[in-house]
């Protein structure tokens, strides 16, 4: 086992919680299950690493970096909530975009990326849920790929969505170009959406959560689920309450909504109120950053509206989160002399 | 801070530059938000007074209480309905006998009941007609902002089973625009919008409905393949179900496995436009029975084609 | 104890469904029998309300009138966007419990020239919070023998109970039928001596008989086929019937090639111009 392989293996063993390690190693399949059962997963990570390493060396005499990277991917695919994921959008699809299939994509992507940068190691794995996972370790002319800080990319074939984890600005254009070519698109841009949970931002962007729309026809059997109420009690404000709840659900979804943690608004606007001379007539735009944060932002916003804490109808600034599928906005004045302000996407 | 309070009504009060506002996650779910307040409290008190508050086995008592409450509500509803139904029948007879209605009668108190009955009849008829439109898959147009915005529903079904309903909210203020929707994002909605949303709304809805129903159909077919054809594995598919890769096994143990790829380029169709067959045994895809199977796969929904292939011994 | 309560609930639900149906049935009969009277009443009341400045009065009748006006507006809107006019509906609940509901419906209406009566049964079930609505029986009658185009569709959707598919396709088929009728009638009016429509203007055949070619009959066969998924594919063909002796070898060749030539014309000029061209060629 060479030095890099050893270091990566050590990192994985350290990173994976002891309770999960057995399962991850089993899925990996490089060590027989029988021997795994004999390991003591309650000892220190240092001892555990030495045990795992020796088991690996005994069982496969040529354990390479490739195998260890696979182990890391297995853990990462199962536990993707370890940092910030950013969503990107492929645009200008070619006519044959629908025919891109896995084998072709793998070949194309690897070929394109290695054309662009010489020292890079790429590993691609298809997950059960139709997502393609890519692990990239970057190097340059003078350095071998850094296996300890890989970039992860998740893409669903035949969709325009890409989710990226741990990508530096230096490597961004390279990755974008390789992806654009391999998926047969014209270009790729940032979606201004990020979050800790990959599944959440994916569901959010691909709209696979329940959105509320007005309807006239309640399902006849739905009465089953509503709590029985006393027929003698009539709610005075039931109608308004119902309306607020409906508007809140229309703006922020209902039921199990994807978990977003933040919404950020960067303001670059001018002050147009009266009576404050220091703020009026300033040359420079007024800059401010407003950040909403919550364990589950959409539920919080929904609650604020349905409980009457925030006004209805919901301001477009907030409903834009779901409508545009973004949680980062830059707001600027549309033009001088124009009193209506609009939201302009950051270029 | 300038127009901020307009932008974030209810949120931004006295926030300084760069400030951060945290909203804690509410502890209750949305249903609780609906029922909380004075009335639920009153309800609780009432139950307490009636001795309905659980004492020993809370789960058991809760269930019985709920049932009692349901019975109470249903009885009241039935009694009310019975009175109404009887009255309607009486009115129908008296109307049929013709003891009513000349212009003068409208103003007298006596016939206002008959007048109301006639109008209620009309109201019921209209409601039934509207519900029928809904049942046969109408677009269920709802105005969300008078004259400006409306919402349409696109119902899908696979054979007799009603499946997902998709929605679009449209804005008519200047040009017709899609405000929001829950159509799957891989659907070529933008193309359809460009084709005829401005010029011909029914045509636009019709073609979108064709797309969505074909999608439902392809989705259901995959479910049926997984359910009914145990020897076949679905290796690959996507959100639009425009690609389907199947691993088929021959009826005998030693038969080579076959990879069948179906491409659905026509998104308004439930049938594939291209079928390719690959196998370790190069001769197999060109064998007469596989050639026949290819035609079958192009002509029939995939689960039906596979079923026939299974019966004729092409696959296990 | 629980068992008894549940049974009572079930009984109550059925009773309610029955009473509801009874009441609605009486109401429907009233509405049917006295439609004119109702419209008369509606008119006079809304006039009165208007005179009072359109202010909504709080009494029961004014509320009803207001509600009816809204419903009528809504119905008009749905009819327009759905392209289907419903004239009569009848609904009957045959089973009703907490997690199952079976209803039979009979719907009469028309879509452009096509009139239909559709009977269907809808079964709604609730299992583990999953709501399922299915058409469990479907019976369709479409009026007019000349509509050959729709009959294959009808038998197919009846078999698979595809109620929604039927109505989605019906709209499209009737539009295509209307276009065909319009086109056929147009030519019939322009050249009544040459053109005949042997099965009526709603059928798929138009016959051209030229006085210059007395032994030769040209038929335009315009079929409107539907695929299983409800996509309409109109197919227009030109058929020739002729007596050998009637033609010189040159003319014969021209006419033999006519069906193919017609297809090219269709592709280039569209239906109307292509037929126009054929009529001209036979010398009218």
UniProtKB/TrEMBL annotation, chain A:
- BP terms from Gene Ontology: CENP-A containing chromatin assembly; chromosome segregation
- Domain of life of the organism encoding this protein: Eukaryota
Give the UniProt entry's GO cellular component terms: chromosome, centromeric region; nucleoplasm
The cross-references to InterPro entries, in alphabetical order and at most eight, read: CENP-NAC/CAD_complex, Chl4/mis15/CENP-N
UniProt keyword annotations, A-Z: Centromere, Chromosome, Nucleus
Q: Where in the cell is it found?
A: Chromosome, Centromere; Nucleus
**Similarity remark:** Belongs to the CENP-N/CHL4 family.
The protein in question is named Centromere protein N
Lineage from the top down?
Eukaryota, Metazoa, Chordata, Craniata, Vertebrata
Gene name for this UniProt entry: CENPN
TrEMBL record, chain B:
The residues forming a coiled coil are 64-91
Alphabetized, the UniProt keywords read: Centromere, Chromosome, Coiled coil, Nucleus
State where the protein is found: Chromosome, Centromere; Nucleus
Presence of the UniProt keyword Nucleus in the record: yes
Classify the main location. nucleus
Known InterPro entries for this protein?
Answer: CENP-O
The domain of life for this entry's organism is: Eukaryota
Gene Ontology CC entries for this record: Mis6-Sim4 complex; nucleus
Annotated family: Belongs to the CENP-O/MCM21 family.
Question: Which protein are we looking at?
Answer: Centromere protein O
Automatic annotation (TrEMBL), chain C:
List the record's Gene Ontology CC terms alphabetically.
chromosome, centromeric region; nucleus
Any Pfam family: CENP-P
GO BP term (any one):
CENP-A containing chromatin assembly
Spell out the InterPro entries in the cross-references: CENP-P (IPR027801)
Q: Which organism is it from?
A: Denticeps clupeoides (denticle herring)
Q: Which intervals of the chain form a coiled coil?
A: 2-36
Q: Which keywords does this Swiss-Prot/TrEMBL entry list?
A: Coiled coil
Ranges annotated as spanning the membrane? none
Name under which the protein is recorded: Centromere protein P
